[in-house]
């Protein structure tokens, strides 16, 4: 069964969220050391509109739904871990997503595309400037990951991230989900969101390279509008590479696996038991 069911997930505060085809479950260790579990149906929009299961479209749907479910799981975990009094309402969830999107657009779109003009002293070639913009975007992303990876609270979340990966690897290997079995598996996983984000950064470099060099506002708009296309292509790369032994694809996703050494930590047995 493990080779037919795809399980995804993410780390949350003092726990993990796991998503299967039909249900999403969030397990959180409370301050009194009990494990609280919330199980909800997935209710994917692609079930109502099957066309959204088509290649390229399914990547955008998966990304959007993962963001919503991830934020809800984070809110639940914060409440169960005693860091918040109540979960986010739907309005607060929408507001949080809008704020996150705007912040990401400023950090990973507006700043690098605006700063790329500094390379005009080398050449005015638009392809070169777009490539420099992509390089700056990648550097900002890596600097951001590096900065948060040294934070004590984030390191604990990264341990749960490792527990999530090891548990999924154990399941996919068809082994019983025991602490002993989970412990021996790698904390790196091909379908990790970290790998996906890195591939998004790399794919965007090539997609945006040939868009010319219009005014700043038009460059920013083009990046935002084409983000679903970039996400769709990146999703297909991740999905295909996870089930393929193609050596070229294997090397293509290596940087994402290497980056997971920063975004995961080896979990202790209590975290694994909770994962």
Topology:
Blueprint: E1 8-12, E2 15-19, E3 23-29, E4 35-41, H1 45-48, H2 57-80, H3 90-115, H4 126-148, H5 152-172, H6 179-183, H7 193-208, H8 216-242, H9 247-252, H10 254-263, H11 269-274
Antiparallel strand pairs: 1-2, 2-3, 3-4
Helix pairs in contact: 2-8, 3-4, 3-8, 4-7, 7-8, 7-10
Give a description of the structure.
The chain has 275 residues and is α+β, with helices and mostly antiparallel strands. The protein is 61% helix and 9% strand. The protein contains 11 helices and 4 strands; from the N terminus they run ββββααααααααααα. The protein has a 4-stranded antiparallel β-sheet, with helices on both faces. It is globular, with a radius of gyration of 20 Å. It starts with 7 loop residues before the first strand and ends with a helix. The mean pLDDT is 89.
List keywords for this structure.
275 residues; alpha+beta; 4 strands
Number of strands: 4
How does the overall form come out from the CA principal axes?
globular
Number of helices: 11
Which strand order do you get reading across the main beta sheet? Answer: 1-2-3-4
Uncertain segments are none
Major pleated sheet: 4 strands, antiparallel
Helix content: 55-70%
* Measured distance between first and last alpha carbons: 20 Å
Radius of gyration from the alpha-carbon trace, in angstroms:
20 Å
Class by alpha and beta content: alpha+beta
The average pLDDT value, as a whole number, equals 89
- Strand percentage lies at 5-15%
Order of helices and strands: EEEEHHHHHHHHHHH
